[in-house]
Amino acid sequence: MKTASDILMTLTAIVAASMIMIACGNSNAEKAQSAQPQQQQYVPQQEQDTTAADSTAAVRDGSDIGGSQAGVAGPKSVATSASSAPSKAVPISSKQFKDSKKKALLIGVGTYQYREDWDKTLSSARDVELLAGSLGQAGYEVTTLIDHQATHEGIEKAFKELLKNCNAGDVVLIHFSGHGQQIKGGSQRNESDNLTETFVAYDARKEYRAGGYDGKRHFTDDEIDNYATLLRERLGKKGMLLLSFDTCHSGTMSRDAVETKKGDVWRSVDMPITIPNYKPVAQATARGALAPGIELSACQAGQLNFEYIIENKQNKSNAGNRYGSLSYMIYLALGDGKTEPRAIADYVMKNYKTKKVMTRQQPCVYNM
């Protein structure tokens, strides 16, 4: 028969073994969690100035990124793409940018060179015109690329020109409006679904053609991410970058115009372009401190981005016109005096339901 002392020793051993198992389980869970890629969640604007020193990195014009491509450079989902040196959420006050120079690059393609591929006309040109006026009034120096101006080469030149003209402490807004399409095949760069997202430039085709179209005129999110890294490096810690994408499945950047019923239009392309032996562009590496940045997308991955139609009761002179839903929300934010990147993002996220512009989708925003 076991004595009381024996029983106590047995219980003590059981408890000790249990504690070891729990500790091991927690350790394994922590390791598994740390192995998962972490995404910078957006933090709403806070009224607190930063005091970090400006970046002293030399100007880089983008000539050292990209390299040779076998197919197209592979983009990540715009809502989830991460720069090579992601910053933590930085509390920023609108006062910080009171004397900053502001620059905007607006890219919109609604009518394409190969209309047999992209037979639906989007409202992208109207998006750009709408935002150009409001941003100009808000003190931005605005550059626009519309339709035939927004070839792959044209977009590259615009990014390099922007890099050349930016200085530490500037505020930069870059807006894309148009079709998007995924790339399938070959190798991918940080793509959880093995699909690369692209913004479809004016001169891109919808399908791969051996000996013909190899996909190089799709502007990929890897390319966008590289230029964003160089821009943030150039702007320094006291600058700010906003990337906004008025595309469908903005997390996956697909956009088209599809009529479902009278007066109802949304934008989506369901068919990826398959590129045999696809290789993404080389990743740009930051050499200096990076400006904080925000990525703002029209809808969650898996959602459609419905175009917004101006109703007669809202604006009689503009009744019936269509706009990209995110483009119109940014326009409303600017009209309400929200001219800084975080203020624009905050306005969109707080008001997209009440303004009834994005009633069937949810925009998303992340810190870079």
Describe this structure in words.
There is one protein chain. The protein has helices spanning 4-35, 124-137, 152-165, 221-235, 325-335, 341-351, and strands at residues 102-108, 140-146, 171-177, 180-184, 195-200, 218-220, 240-246, 258-261, 264-267, 273-274, 293-297, 305-306, 308-309, 322-323, 364-367. It is α/β, with parallel strands linked by helices and 368 residues long. Helix content is 26%, strand content 18%.
Write the layout of secondary structure elements.
Blueprint: H1 4-35, E1 102-108, H2 124-137, E2 140-146, H3 152-165, E3 171-177, E4 180-184, E5 195-200, E6 218-220, H4 221-235, E7 240-246, E8 258-261, E9 264-267, E10 273-274, E11 293-297, E12 305-306, E13 308-309, E14 322-323, H5 325-335, H6 341-351, E15 364-367
Parallel strand pairs: 1-2, 1-3, 3-7, 4-10, 7-11
Antiparallel strand pairs: 4-5, 5-6, 8-9, 9-12, 11-15, 13-14
Helix pairs in contact: 2-5, 3-4, 5-6
Structural class: alpha/beta
Total domain units = 1
The largest sheet has its strands arranged as: 2-1-3-7-11-15
Q: Please, what is the average pLDDT?
A: 74
Q: How many beta-strand segments?
A: 15
Largest sheet composition: 6 strands, mixed
Q: SSE order in H/E notation? A: HEHEHEEEEHEEEEEEEEHHE
**Weakly predicted, low-confidence segments:** 17-39, 46-58, 66-93, 249-262
Quick overview of this protein structure:
This protein is an alpha/beta fold and 368 residues long.
Provide keyphrases for this structure:
Rossmann fold, globular, 368 residues, four-stranded mixed beta sheet, alpha/beta
